[in-house]
From TrEMBL:
Residues 176-450 form the Transposase IS66 central domain. PANTHER family: BLL1576 PROTEIN, PTHR33678:SF2. This is Uncharacterized protein. It comes from Melittangium boletus DSM 14713. The lineage of its organism: Bacteria, Pseudomonadati, Myxococcota, Myxococcia, Myxococcales. Residues 72-91 have a biased composition (Basic and acidic residues).
């Protein structure tokens, strides 16, 4: 009976199957290249063009093979001598890590009475004042659910005209059975640690609490309704910045016929990020995110942003990301060795940025460095791109086209020190949401997308500000229950562990 890849669970058999498939794939790649060569020769095509086309066929086939069997990485091998040794020297050892944020609990161990006797002479052992043999270990105090019965004392006056009742704890919902801290715990577990509600139900059952996922969702939803003004305020505060980064990623709406059209959009600054989950990647969705933003916006190559900028009357200025431009050359470097020249020049641009970070932070100093060192590198890179001969549809041709079409946005950083070299901060801000998508598979309702965007915005922003995310949710919710203005994460003092 043949191997059924869909149902086979034996790791070794699957590994053997993968090796066989990879070998067969390489054989077919070689055959396709050979047949392509014969066909193009028969058509009498130019020898140089023939070589370019064959190289592109080989690149496309190699890329498909890498997508199936290779590792996903944009890291380039280091060529500098001594770099490897330097890395080895900097690698941490295997000793115990310092734990400055953990509370220290001292446990004293003493001898049993029967052991307080000298085995040599039989005399009684006396304590050696101040002498201890000490060792540390990290321990865990298990989470515990309790059923609290709140008894609110009643008071009355002897005149019979007044009865008062002591206040109880603040409630997310009138008459609700679950505490505010319980709701915060569930929300943090889902949107900070990415645990789906069904998984939380199973964990809680092991810890003695019988609950269902609908009940957990009710607590999360009630907390989100209290914190909705903070989400809107965070969005409004970001739109007042001079420069923002933007990105988007897929976020399915489960059960929807158009679930694959739904995307999570992000606006990011160094100390804040806000998300909106919307249907589509069109200009309407981007305008809903950007509203009347009139600053500098760093993005990737999505054409939607170009459309929005064109319709903004010059208020929105697009700048582009060198990380995305570099990625195009990385993808084609194996088939087109000349792409290494572009990668080396782009690496030199990043070296200038690292040089700046080694000194005092000063935008004038950064602008001077960029004018003196980055501008000549850009001129060389532009000349190199103009001198290349590559098919427009080839990997190298597409990389040069991508860079050339966005050259104005890619070079804006040389004249404006506020503009970063890439959009890495925004891409890093999307990681938590992407991990959540892998665990949650998306949202089940439109309300679910709104709650997801809210909690990821507040929690990820708290992390950027160095504020404990769970502490922030609790303090923000308490402010909402008191009727006070809800603080944003940057308005709280950073956590000790931050």
């Amino acid at each position: 009976m043949g191997l059924q890849l869909e149902t086979e669970k034996d790791v070794e058999r699957l590994r053997q199957a993968a090796l066989l498939l990879e070998a067969e794939n390489r054989r077919l790649v070689a055959r396709v290249v050979e047949l392509t060569r014969k066909l193009m020769s028969a058509q009498g095509q130019d020898a140089e063009e023939l070589q370019l086309r064959l190289r592109e066929v080989e690149r496309q086939l190699a890329q498909r093979t890498a997508e199936l069997f290779g590792r996903s990485s944009e890291k380039r091998p280091r060529r500098e001598q001594g770099e490897e040794d330097k890395d080895k020297e900097a690698a941490p050892g295997h000793g115990p890590r310092a734990q400055p944020t953990l509370p220290l609990l001292e446990v004293v161990h003493t001898l049993e009475e029967a052991d307080k006797q000298c085995p040599q002479c039989g005399g009684a052992l006396a304590e050696m004042e101040g002498c201890w043999e000490e060792a540390e270990e990290v321990d865990v105090v298990q989470r515990r659910f309790v059923l609290q019965r709140h008894k609110r004392q009643k008071y009355r006056c002897g005149c019979g005209g007044c009865v008062e009742t002591a206040l109880g704890p603040p409630k997310l919902q009138p008459g609700g059975r679950y505490s505010l801290d319980f709701a915060v715990e569930v929300a943090a577990a889902k949107y900070l640690d990415h645990l789906p509600l069904e998984r939380q139900v199973r964990v809680m059952q092991r810890e003695g609490l019988t609950v269902d996922s609908q009940t957990l969702w009710d607590q999360v939803d009630a907390l989100a309704r209290r914190l909705a003004p903070a989400h809107e305020a965070l969005h409004a505060a970001l739109l007042t910045r001079e420069i923002l980064g933007g990105d988007e990623t897929r976020w399915p709406l489960l059960g929807s016929k158009s679930q694959t059209r739904w995307h999570a959009w992000a606006l990011c600054a160094p100390d804040a990020v806000v998300y909106r989950i919307q249907e589509g990647r069109d200009a309407q969705a981007a305008r809903h995110l950007l509203q009347d933003f009139d600053g500098i916006f760093m993005v990737d190559g999505l054409s939607t942003y170009e459309s929005v900028a064109a319709g903004s009357g010059g208020k929105l200025t697009l700048v582009h990301c060198w990380m995305h431009a570099r990625r195009k050359y990385v993808e084609c470097a194996e088939a087109f060795p000349q792409a290494e020249e572009a990668l080396e020049m782009i690496a030199a641009l990043y070296a200038v940025e690292r040089e700046y970070k080694e000194g005092p932070e000063n935008l004038e100093r950064l602008l001077e460095l960029r004018q003196h060192k980055s501008r000549p590198l850009l001129e060389r890179l532009h000349q190199w791109a103009c001198a290349q001969r590559a098919l427009p549809q080839s990997g190298l041709g597409q990389a040069i086209k991508y860079m050339s079409q966005r050259w104005t946005g890619l070079t804006r950083f040389v004249t404006d020190a506020r503009v970063p070299l890439d959009n890495g901060a925004t891409e890093r801000a999307m990681r938590g949401l992407a991990v959540g998508r892998k665990n949650h598979y998306g949202s089940r309702s439109r309300r679910g997308t709104e709650v997801t965007a809210l909690f990821y915005s507040l929690l990820e922003t708290a992390k950027l500000c160095g504020v404990d995310p769970k502490r922030y949710l609790r303090e923000a919710a308490l402010a909402a229950l008191r009727g006070d203005s809800i603080p944003l994460p940057h308005q709280l003092a950073p956590s000790a562990e931050g």
